[in-house]
Specification:
With 486 residues, the chain is mostly beta strands. Helices cover 12% and strands 45% of the residues. The strands form 9 sheets. It has a 6-stranded antiparallel beta sheet, with no helix packed on it. Strand 15 and strand 16 form a beta hairpin. It is globular.
């Protein structure tokens, strides 16, 4: 997977990260509605902030405080205890808080930070520069003639870039020393590259496209060799392709066993020769999708599509590299923040955040009281860097009391989903929340035991849970969900 947007989300991560879906093909100024046909993806893993009231610095569990300048466009990449702080003025790498190892200065208007393995890249989305780093320091600098639209890293520090210049797009591939290995100019009118990624064996790269040249939209994924010796028998180095009719393609990402690509209707698994291995169809709008992990894709679902047999709004699902849903977690309301990491998922519902392990069990709860922009696990999934507007805090979520004031969600495996659906049909006329309350109490008990929270927190969470369930229900009944992203 190419460097994902790190949360703003910039990692997003792969961290990627990702663009809005309703797709704006920035490369040619073409605006494509996601409701074309029956597609219903609202957005990609994208930059966002979550609004909430003020944080008490005296709450237990606060391990470190990192001051930030307002308007610095700060973001973080984390490596255990160590972290890289990126702002519009440069980057600083810390072994731990206060222990700075190295720094690098630059001036960027709109810095975007991505991370892949040991490598990080910062690109100015309003400029021409991309800087690549690892934990030792700066590796190389790329200066474009145009503006980057999207860029990605592989685990070895190779960089792929989609560049826009004078209404045309170019794709560039650089090795870990910053040497330009291949460039491709997109000459075809009405066909626009959306995303690119590089395989971790450094041999190939893939590009997703939206084709608007016909009445029916067409999605394409093209595969290219990087090395001349591999590509000498192929025109323009392209050795495979896949066409997906009437769907808008978004992020393409290399995983453990092939390539994953998302559309406004589903998630596809492709072999490296372009053959479709599987498709996971969406029956809900997609609020967020993360390709940060190579063995799974994490999706946050919104409203059900018309006539679709979808899941409840706010469900977070893990889909493996065979296209199978392995676990899902119901947050109880619309997801406004999502990030996926090695040891678990962080999902936010406005000011409420939950750490969810890949077993579907809750690891911790967090009630934010300040505008929150990023939550990044550090050494353990329970030790989290929380970035707000003017500072970042490192919190031990097993001790932080701000997390007690939250409504508990519900996790299920695929088999349990089927069972719960049948049970819900039978208990439809019963008082609402009776069964869910019993299940939630049991899960709360398990979660509290796992995170070693105090007896007082257990009692407080259980009592407040019942009250906020009712409030959440009333709020959701009154709330209209906006299906279109700016």
């Amino acid at each position: 997977m190419g460097g994902k947007h790190i949360h703003k989300m910039s990692k997003a991560g792969k961290a990627f990260l990702a663009v809005f879906l309703m797709v704006f093909i920035a490369t040619a100024g073409v605006y494509l509605d996601t409701f074309h046909g029956e597609g219903h993806i609202q957005r990609y893993f994208a930059n966002l902030s979550v609004k909430s009231p003020e944080e008490s610095s005296k709450s237990s569990g606060l391990l470190e405080n990192i001051p930030l300048d307002m308007g610095s466009h700060a973001s973080f990449a984390v490596y255990g205890q160590s972290y890289l702080l990126c702002t519009k003025d440069g980057v600083k790498y810390f072994r731990s808080t206060g222990d700075q190892i190295w720094s690098d200065t630059f001036t960027m208007t709109a810095p975007q930070l991505i991370q892949e393995g040991e490598y990080m890249a910062v690109g100015d989305m309003s400029g021409k520069d991309i800087q690549v780093y690892n934990q030792e320091g700066p590796r190389y600098h790329v200066q474009l003639e145009g503006t980057p639209v999207q860029f990605a890293l592989n685990e070895n520090g190779y960089l792929s870039v989609i560049e826009k210049q004078n209404g045309r797009c170019k794709i560039h591939i650089y090795n870990k020393e910053g040497k330009l290995l291949k460039s491709r100019v997109e000459e075809s009118q009405g066909i626009y590259p959306v995303s690119t990624d590089i395989s971790d064996d450094d041999k190939s790269f893939a590009i997703s496209y939206v084709d608007t040249t016909d009445v029916q939209l067409m999605g394409h994924v093209l595969f290219f060799y990087i090395n001349p010796k591999d590509s000498k028998n192929f025109t323009d180095s392209m050795y495979a392709s896949t066409d997906i009719p009437d769907e808008i393609l978004g992020t393409v990402s290399y995983g453990d066993s092939g390539v994953r690509v998302v559309s406004d209707k589903g998630l596809y698994g492709l072999q490296d020769n372009g053959t479709k291995k599987w498709k996971h169809t969406f029956h809900n709008m997609i609020e967020f999708i993360s390709f940060q992990n190579k063995d799974r894709v994490v999706v946050a679902y919104g409203e059900k599509t018309a006539g679709g047999d979808g899941c409840p709004v706010g469900t977070v699902s893990c889909i493996d590299n065979a296209g199978k849903e392995r676990v899902s977690y119901e947050t109880g309301s619309r997801v406004t923040y999502l990030s996926a990491w090695k040891d678990g998922i962080i999902a936010g519902n406005e000011k409420n955040y939950t750490g969810i392990r890949y077993t579907g069990k809750e690891a911790w709860k967090y009630l934010a009281t300040k505008d929150t922009q990023e939550l990044i696990p550090m050494e353990k999934f329970t030790k989290v860097l929380v970035m707000v507007q003017d500072n970042a805090m490192i919190l031990d979520m097993t001790k932080h009391t701000g997390g007690a004031d939250m409504v508990h969600g519900k996790s299920t495996t695929k088999a349990e989903n089927k069972k719960n659906t049948k049970q819900n049909e039978k208990t439809e006329e019963k008082p609402k929340g009776q069964t869910d309350k019993e299940q939630t109490k049991e899960q709360t008990k398990d979660e509290m035991t796992q995170t070693d929270e105090t007896t007082h927190q257990k009692e407080t969470s259980s009592k407040i849970e019942e009250k906020q369930k009712k409030e959440s229900k009333d709020t959701n009944n009154d709330k209209e969900i906006n299906d279109i992203v700016e």
